[in-house]
């Protein structure tokens, strides 16, 4: 008898995404029976997205579950890019892009993973009663980071709604943990506990049901939830080079061309440009739409994680490569590279160069060998590739 | 005398990059990425499952091979952090 095919193996064959996150079947291995793996963020966020969608379908739209990447992005632990997403994108994903819908939710749920070693906890804000809750499956484990992290995320979401200052003093913290005999007994199930609490919150169940003895049932329920809602994972249409698109247009069933970035999972951002680099569809579906007066960091637009494959033989991409060098409005990283690539003129003084760097809108601070990006708040070295120039005595003296 | 079979699939070098740090891993085109992931995580001194690996903006699956993805010698694989909570 032929063994039954795992329905989740579909993730190995098709690039399926939910809320912009690329999912592989191995992410859900944690939901296998008696699995001893730790819950990865991808599985947590995918399940959260499915859970919220299903509950909304059932008419229960009182809760919004946010991405666990929101905290690290707000704290600048990870950069905003096509892979980790953007703060705006994650907030809008939790309410299908409708801020009015977000305001109408009664509970905002935030899975959080932090600490050393990392530990999943769940925070949520109960807006009507002005209470914020933190669930920890291991009561003896101190999670001092959780409360400030939750409030910082809360601040960011409220700011997104226009409420710039939240009076947390008037809110009340409620901590939750299972009873001593029902708490997490192993080193890997905290994510399963967190998923259980999410289920409890969304369905209005009693939180005392969250017990160590329930983890196996929750593991299976989580897997079933994903299996039954595979349709929520949308395929991503791989972009093709223009030449290929033209030659294979008849064979491609999806109406996607290299200049078509409006497919289901493509971002809504569309910046007019003649650069072929810019028309490469972004692989994430995070909404990167620009709000009036709110500029977006160029690295988010260009997708820093995207690497163009080296041309194998001919010069298919040579035009675009040369075009990319003529881009005038780059990030400090590009600027730094360009500053050295374009040989400094004989008459250019150090202070002139400093002024030109300071004049760039993306430069926050300038030091002798590095600049701080206003967008991602990271320091970017100016002289990585110019050690030889260093020896000649260049910027060092500035 | 037995003749050694000729190696028709030469090994390729993969550049695995995380946070500006780079390791080179030499693999056969038909090596499964599960093995490459483990080697890279070990080289970076990280727990298994710490990273998600991306090639040209697309995530790589454990069952994929460099040959499946048309990866060539010297191509770069990017590592991105995964959240992995477990307490211990």
UniProtKB/TrEMBL annotation, chain A:
Where is the Ubiquitin-like protease family profile domain positioned along the sequence?
97-228
Q: Which Gene3D superfamilies match?
A: Adenoviral Proteinase, Chain A
Name under which the protein is recorded: ULP-PROTEASE domain-containing protein
GO BP: any one term: proteolysis
Which SUPFAM superfamilies does this chain map to? Cysteine proteinases (SSF54001)
Q: Name one Pfam family in it.
A: Peptidase_C48
* Superkingdom per UniProt: Eukaryota
Spell out the InterPro entries in the cross-references: Papain-like_cys_pep_sf, Peptidase_C48_C
UniProt keywords, alphabetically: Hydrolase, Protease
UniProt lists compositionally biased (Low complexity) regions at 312-325
Basic residues biased stretches: 334-346
Coiled-coil boundaries: none
The ranges of region (Disordered) come to 255-346
Composition bias (Polar residues) maps to: 255-274
Similarity section: Belongs to the peptidase C48 family.
Automatic annotation (TrEMBL), chain B:
UniProt cross-references to PROSITE patterns, sorted A to Z = UBIQUITIN_2 (PS50053)
- Recorded source organism is Mycena indigotica
User: InterPro entries given for it?
Assistant: Rad60/SUMO-like_dom (IPR022617), Ubiquitin-like_dom (IPR000626), Ubiquitin-like_domsf (IPR029071)
User: Record's SMART domains?
Assistant: UBQ
Residue ranges of domain Ubiquitin-like in the record: 10-86
SUPFAM superfamilies listed in its UniProt record: Ubiquitin-like
- UniProt name for this protein: Ubiquitin-like protein SMT3
């Amino acid at each position: 008898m032929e063994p039954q095919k795992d329905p989740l193996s579909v993730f190995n064959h098709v690039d399926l995404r939910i809320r912009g996150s690329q999912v592989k079947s191995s992410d859900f291995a944690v939901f296998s029976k008696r699995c001893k793996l730790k819950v990865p963020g991808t599985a947590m966020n995918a399940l959260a997205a499915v859970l919220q969608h299903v509950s909304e379908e059932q008419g229960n739209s009182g809760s919004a579950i946010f991405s666990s990447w929101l905290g690290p992005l707000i704290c600048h632990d990870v950069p905003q890019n096509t892979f980790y997403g953007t703060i705006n994108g994650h907030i809008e994903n939790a309410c299908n892009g409708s801020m009015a819908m977000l305001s109408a939710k009664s509970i905002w749920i935030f899975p959080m993973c932090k600490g050393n070693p990392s530990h999943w906890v769940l925070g949520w804000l109960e807006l009507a009663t002005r209470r914020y809750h933190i669930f920890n499956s291991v009561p003896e484990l101190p999670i001092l980071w959780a409360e400030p992290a939750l409030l910082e995320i809360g601040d960011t979401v409220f700011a997104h709604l226009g409420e710039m200052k939240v009076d947390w003093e008037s809110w009340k913290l409620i901590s939750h943990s299972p009873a001593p005999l029902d708490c997490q007994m192993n080193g890997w199930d905290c994510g399963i506990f967190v998923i259980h609490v999410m289920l409890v919150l969304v369905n209005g169940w009693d939180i005392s049901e969250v017990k160590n003895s329930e983890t196996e049932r929750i593991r299976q329920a989580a897997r079933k939830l994903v299996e039954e809602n595979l349709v929520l994972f949308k395929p991503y249409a791989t972009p093709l080079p223009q030449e290929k698109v033209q030659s294979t247009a008849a064979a491609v069933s999806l109406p996607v061309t290299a200049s078509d970035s409006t497919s289901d999972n493509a971002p809504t951002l569309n910046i007019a440009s003649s650069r072929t680099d810019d028309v490469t569809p972004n692989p994430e579906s995070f909404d990167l739409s620009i709000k009036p007066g709110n500029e977006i960091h160029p690295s988010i637009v260009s997708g820093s994680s995207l690497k163009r494959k080296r041309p194998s033989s001919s010069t298919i991409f040579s035009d675009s490569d040369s075009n990319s060098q003529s881009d005038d409005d780059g990030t400090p990283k590009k600027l730094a590279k360009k500053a050295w690539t374009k040989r400094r003129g004989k008459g250019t003084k150090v202070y002139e160069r400093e002024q030109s760097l300071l004049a760039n809108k993306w430069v926050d601070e300038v030091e002798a060998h590095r600049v701080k990006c206003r967008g991602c708040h990271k320091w970017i070295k100016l002289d990585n590739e110019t050690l030889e120039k260093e020896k000649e005595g260049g910027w060092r003296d500035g | 005398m037995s003749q050694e079979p000729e190696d028709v699939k030469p090994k390729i070098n993969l550049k695995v990059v995380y946070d500006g740090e780079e390791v080179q891993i030499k693999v056969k085109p038909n090596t499964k990425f599960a093995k490459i992931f483990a080697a890279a995580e070990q080289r970076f001194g990280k727990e298994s499952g710490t990273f998600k690996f991306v090639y040209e903006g697309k995530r790589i699956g454990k069952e994929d091979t460099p040959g499946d993805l048309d990866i060539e010698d010297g191509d770069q694989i990017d590592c991105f952090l995964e959240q992995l909570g477990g307490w211990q």
